[in-house]
Design a protein that fits this description.
Helix content is 33%, strand content 24%. The two termini are 30 Å apart. The protein has 252 residues and is an alpha/beta fold. It has a six-stranded mixed beta sheet. Strands 9-8-7-11-10-12 form a six-stranded parallel beta sheet, with helices on both faces.
Length: 252
């Protein structure tokens, strides 16, 4: 069944209203009619099977027939800090990162970011990015939609890090040493329900000054395998590793 994320104001107990692009999708794309079933997600993370009771092109009325006992979220809250990359690479990180279970994303104006965002550009991009993570969440049956936070500078990133249990930097120099900090070891310090902040540099990586500042504030530099990864690959490697560590390895 198709899944839709419904704003809280559109809920009244088990009664749900779908409007806008989602209503158009139900009527024109999916060709649903009265009596058909879809899955509706509440912002709290609850999801239920809902029957369409009334339908037109602008508004769909539904009734929750059954709440689903399911959760597809990672056991830990993983936030990706992505140094602003060139082109549409950040969109790839958002889409695939959502599929891999990221809890939230933070765009970072790194020293070596070729791309520069002003406030006007950031707001314009945010609406498109929110659509990307919403559609990806529907496609992969997430319980919640990842948050996309405002762009941060280095001092703001340091302040943000105080909200997390573990903070790491994907640092390519760690991949070149025999003695290195293990990403796996950092994950082993996490318990279900806790949070991790994972910082990924832009194409040119982090500057020495950024690494120094982050280390001073308890960020741990880690390697992501022995190879040097592209900026758009690093976040996906980290999220896949978290999924394996908490969802697969623990069950084996």
């Amino acid at each position: 069944m198709q899944r839709y994320f419904i704003p809280e104001n559109n809920w009244d107990g088990k009664h749900v209203i779908i409007t806008g692009e989602d209503a158009h999708h139900i009527v024109k794309v999916m060709r649903n009619t009265v009596g058909d079933l879809v899955i509706c997600n509440h912002p709290s993370g609850k999801a239920g099977t809902a029957k369409i009771t009334e339908l037109n092109e602008s508004e769909i009325t539904l009734y929750i027939e059954e709440w689903l006992e399911e959760s597809s979220e990672l056991p830990v809250k993983a936030t990706i800090v992505q140094g602003l990359p060139k082109g549409d690479k950040f969109e790839l990180v958002l889409q695939k990162g959502t599929e891999l279970g990221a809890y939230s994303f933070i765009p970072f104006q790194a020293e070596r970011s070729v791309v520069k965002w002003d406030d006007k550009k950031a707001q314009k991009k945010l609406s498109r990015y929110q659509k990307i993570v919403k559609e990806a969440s529907e496609q992969c049956h997430r319980n919640t939609i990842p948050h996309i936070k405002n762009r941060v500078t280095l001092p703001q990133l340091v302040e943000e890090s105080k909200n997390y249990d573990v903070c790491v930097i994907a640092y390519e120099e760690e991949a070149k040493t025999d003695v290195h900090h293990s990403f796996s070891k950092q994950l082993s310090q996490l318990k279900p329900g806790e949070s991790i902040l994972i910082c990924i540099g832009p194409e040119g990586g982090f500057s020495p000054a950024e690494i120094h500042t982050l280390k001073e504030h308890a960020f741990v530099p880690v390697r992501l395998g022995r190879r040097i990864l592209r900026t758009e690959t690093a976040a996906l490697y980290a999220l896949a590793s978290i999924s394996y560590h908490f969802e697969e390895l623990e069950c084996s």
